[in-house]
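User: quick one, fold this
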Amino acid sequence: MNPLYDLSNVHLILNKTVGNIEELMLSAKEAMIKKKFQESIDLFTEIIKIEPDNFDAIFSRGIANFIKKNYQNALEDFTQGLFLKPDSSKLLCSRANTYLALDQNDSALHDLNQAIEIDPQYISAYLTRSEVMERMGEKEQAEADKEVGLRLQQQMSQSLLESQGFMFQTW
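Assistant:
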């Protein structure tokens, strides 16, 4: 029998590939933690070569590129990620921050508006949109977004503490 058509070989090859991806992912994340960003980018790239639709690798490589100030590469990664998960407010906010770093305020604002539409509780989107509005000279809207973001942050912190057994008096 031709070994290429032997299903047990296919199963072994697939298991080896999955194991290899898991090992590469762990190594790439470890490199990120150790602030070896170029190493992590290279490892995430290897994962993407094996598995082009690996969202975690694409998003993580985008973060590493952003940290290294490789903004164009980060933008490409976040855009590629949005093809896989178009309703990811986190990804939209990450791409907006990249646009912000590239002084593309209109594009950043578009992504932030979309992120807020998807998730009206997403604190980071409001705070980042506040920064964009400030840059665009829209002081009132910047202040309003900052206020919403800080209020949501306070509510989330209070909810977390209450879930841990802390109670607050409202007089």
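User: anything notable?
Assistant: Confidence is low (pLDDT under 50) at residues 1-16.
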